[in-house]
Amino acid sequence: MKRSRSPDQARPLSPAYPDLKRSSVTMSTQTGESLNAICGIDDDFAVSTIKQKSLGAGELVQQVLEMVKNRDRAELIILGLMKEYSFSYHRLKDLLRENNLEVSFSKVSYSDIAPMVGLEPLIMGDDIPFFPMSRARLTNDLFRKVIEDIDVFTSQYGVLSGHRNEEARSRFLSAYFNRIVDLFSGLVYNTPESLLEGRMTTKGRIEYQFSIYGGITILFIEVKLEIGGATERLNCYAQVIAECDACAWMNTQNGFDIPIMAILCDGKSFRFFKFIRQSRTHNTKPQLFLGQFVGGFEEEPIYEMARGTSPADFIRRSRRLCESLFYVFLDGYNTGLEGYWNRSIEKGKSEGKGRDSTPGWVKAKNLAKEALEEGQVAWNLHNEGKIDESRVSAENALKLLAQSVEEAPWMGKGMRCSKFYTDTIADGY
Predict the structure, then answer these.
(1) Which distant-in-sequence residues (6+ apart) come within 8 Å of 309 by Cβ?
(2) Which of 209, 210, 206 is nearest to 221 (CA)?
(3) What's the distance, CA 282 to chain centroid?
(4) Given this model, what pLDDT does residue 48 score?
(5) Which residues make beta-bridge pairs with 53?
(6) How far apart, in whole angstroms, are the C-alpha atoms of residue 325 and residue 315?
(7) pLDDT 10s digits, 121-148
(8) What confidence tens digit (pLDDT) does each residue in 225-269 have?
(9) pLDDT, tens only, 38-97
(10) Mind giving me the DSSP string for 116-177?
(11) How many whole angstroms separate alpha carbon 112 and alpha carbon 163?
């Protein structure tokens, strides 16, 4: 497996669609194009148009009994069902428990699942096409809060290399994006539930699953500490594929046909993936893309404030990581808005009239797109040494995002108790 490349060794983007040409990653970071456009996805096609066959209760029981006979392939049988059928996943989980089936996507091997997304297992991951990964600039005030959170979590759990289990590491790593998620005022919310609830300690598990208006757009998957060789890392990629495919199936059941961003963390670095499972035809295979930054880098290292580390160096490098995460959340927010807006349009057509909420969605999604573009512009300006212009652009990005969140006609926005805080209230009985 030869995926760790220096900038001058990085191979160009691989074509996943006929119109996705091999080119430098620089194109997206300069133009602010959405990942959907780069990967050849039609933004207007975010509502599932293929109606799957329904699998009845009795038929589902029969499929589970088949899994009992073939326990080592149960996960692949489930993925096969998701490709063809709609069914009650709650009932599926009940049946798995009743039959003592310990099913987990962390058990799936790369050699088994790679062909499902058009990859050749023998190439060992070198045929995974790239998508241009980018960063969105955070304001200094916001990033300072992130650093303060990291300080608090370091006091509680110690430095990253000292963590003895995945639970401590998971809580610690949330400091890097808690403040970012908070920007969306509850519109981006965490639903940390794997489709399959078996034991996932052998390789990894979904620690965070972010939904936007009911459509899953971002997965954060952690794998066990100290990943071994290439085979083990590829099997971690297999879990990314399986978890994304299952979540994409869930989206389809809810009327969404949207890409999913996946973040894979091994405790040392982050890798970013984009998964596309468009249901235009039953013959279309899902596709997996690996994020590649300008310069050819394929991962974002995690630095720690250990003894002997320069605080300035730690702060600067941590900012790059946080701004990669900010880009992912902005892109996921855009994807979720687009999908929900299109679903709103479709419902209006089925009801024979326009929906009152549709104009709000239009404003929200247009502002979200501007926020994403402005955040990328701010990053590029900083990269060019234009510090003052970058600061202005980063502030504008947050303002545009706040306006988008305000415009979105969604009752699930979180109420902030801090707005009502006074010393009088806090000192009262």
Answers:
(1) 303
(2) 206
(3) 24
(4) 44
(5) 85
(6) 15
(7) 999 999 999 999 999 999 999 999 999 9
(8) 556 678 888 988 999 999 999 999 988 888 888 899 999 988 889
(9) 444 444 434 444 556 888 889 999 999 999 999 989 989 999 998 888 888 788 888 988
(10) GGT--GGGTTTTPPEEE----PPPHHHHHHHHHHHHHHHHHH--GGG--SHHHHHHHHGGGT
(11) 32
Task: Give the number of other CB atoms < 10 A from CB of residue 43.
Answer: 17
Task: Give the closest residue to 36 by CA, choosing from 358, 337, 380, 282.
Answer: 337
* Residue with token string 């109606």: 51
What single string gives the DSSP state of each residue in 108-125? Answer: --HHHHGGGGT--GGGTT
**Per-residue confidence (pLDDT) for residue 227, from 0 to 100:** 62
The enclosing H or E element of 402 equals helix 387-407
| pLDDT tens by residue, 61-78 | 999 999 999 998 998 999
Q: How many Å is the Cα radius of gyration of the chain?
A: 22
What is the distance between the alpha carbons of residues 90 and 288, in angstroms, rounded to a whole number? 27
**Coil, strand or helix: which one is 325?**
helix
Helix axes 166-173, 140-157, angle to 10 degrees: 160
Cα separation values, 184 from 2, 217, 253, 389, Å: 38, 14, 25, 25
Angstrom distance (rounded) from CA 339 to CA 256: 6
Q: Read off the amino acid at residue 390.
A: S
The label of the residue with tokens 């959340």 reads 329
Residue 86: is it exposed, middle or buried by C-beta count within 10 angstroms (0-12/13-18/19+)? middle
Q: How many CA atoms lie within 13 A of 110 on its CB side?
A: 22
Q: How many residues does the chain have?
A: 429
* C-beta of residue 394 within 8 angstroms of C-beta of residue 139: yes
For residue 32, which amino acid is it?
A: G
Beta bridge partners of 272: 263
| Paired residues of 204 in beta bridges | 223
Nearest residue to 341 (alpha-carbon basis) of 37, 44, 33: 44
Give pLDDT, residue 12.
37
Which residue in 245, 314, 325 sits closest to 79, CA to CA? 245
